[in-house]
């Protein structure tokens, strides 16, 4: 898709977004890539760092309240990287917030998620929310690959509108899986540590 190729070129020009495969290899298997989150560029940088064949089957999870209201952001999300929208603010009657992600995984797609739930201004991630654990429970065959996005908290921090050109590396770590009988807190701490060790 032309829009996707243009996005990749723009992201590479702005922040580099070069992928470094440290603990895993770029293989055509279903994965959930989970990363630290400090910038609106995180989604684009991680997605652009994937090889084209993997990028075509990988969909970033995006907050509906930011990306899902039309305009240029909505166009990028819908036609550039085929976002899977998630509601951050939801009512009790809204149903399972993870259902759109499960639908994408059921369809064979891979996902990019940010388990912190929101952006942090720190270089290291804050504790993860429970969504990653529930996805690991429901999709035990999907590889969970830790990713660390370097320098993007300085390139386009929270509140800024234009990125500062800096070279960003996207480090892909080892794949994890939920261990039999592993509880939520233990798993989330282990997943968090896997991202931190890439920093």
Assign the CATH class.
Answer: Alpha Beta
Q: What kind of oligomer do you see?
A: single chain
Please indicate the count of domains: 1
Q: Determine the CATH superfamily.
A: Glycerol-3-phosphate (1)-acyltransferase
Per CATH, what is the topology? Glycerol-3-phosphate (1)-acyltransferase
DSSP E strands, number: 7
The CATH level-2 architecture is identified as 3-Layer(aba) Sandwich
Structural class by SSE content: alpha/beta
Question: What is the CA–CA distance across the termini?
Answer: 33 Å
The helix/strand order is: HEEHHEHHEHEHEHEH
Helix content: 25-40%
Contiguous runs where pLDDT drops below 50 for at least 5 residues: none
Query: What's the story with the biggest beta sheet?
Result: 7 strands, mixed
Radius of gyration, in Å, reads 16 Å
Into which percentage range does the β-strand content fall? Answer: 15-25%
Q: How many alpha or pi helices?
A: 9
Describe the structure.
With 199 residues, the protein is of the alpha/beta class. It has one domain: Glycerol-3-phosphate (1)-acyltransferase, CATH 3.40.1130.10. The chain contains nine helices and seven strands. The chain has helices at residues 2-15, 42-49, 52-55, 64-67, 71-80, 99-106, 131-138, 152-155, 184-196; strands at 18-21, 31-35, 58-63, 84-86, 110-113, 143-149, 169-176. A seven-stranded mixed beta sheet has the order 1-7-6-2-5-3-4, with helices on both faces. α1 packs across α2 (42-49). The longest helix is centred in the N-terminal third of the chain and has 14 residues, at 2-15. The model has no long low-confidence stretch (mean pLDDT 86).
């Amino acid at each position: 898709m032309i829009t996707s190729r243009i996005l990749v070129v723009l992201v590479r020009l702005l922040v580099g977004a070069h992928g470094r495969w440290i603990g895993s290899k770029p293989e055509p298997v279903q994965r959930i890539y989970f990363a630290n989150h400090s910038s609106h560029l995180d989604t684009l940088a991680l997605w652009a760092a994937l090889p084209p064949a993997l990028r075509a089957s990988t969909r970033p999870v995006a907050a509906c309240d930011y990306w899902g209201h039309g305009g240029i952001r909505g166009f990028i999300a819908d036609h550039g990287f085929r976002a899977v929208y998630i509601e951050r603010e939801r009512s009790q009657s809204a149903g399972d917030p993870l259902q759109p992600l499960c639908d994408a995984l059921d369809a064979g797609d891979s996902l990019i998620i940010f388990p912190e739930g929101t952006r942090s201004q720190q270089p290291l991630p804050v504790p993860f929310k429970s969504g990653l654990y529930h996805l690991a429970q429901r999709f035990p065959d999907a590889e969970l690959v830790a990713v660390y996005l370097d320098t993007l908290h300085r390139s386009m921090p929270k509140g800024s509108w234009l990125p500062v050109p800096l070279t960003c590396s996207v480090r892909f770590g080892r794949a994890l899986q939920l261990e039999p009988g592993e509880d939520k807190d233990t798993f989330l701490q282990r997943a968090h540590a896997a991202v931190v060790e890439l920093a």
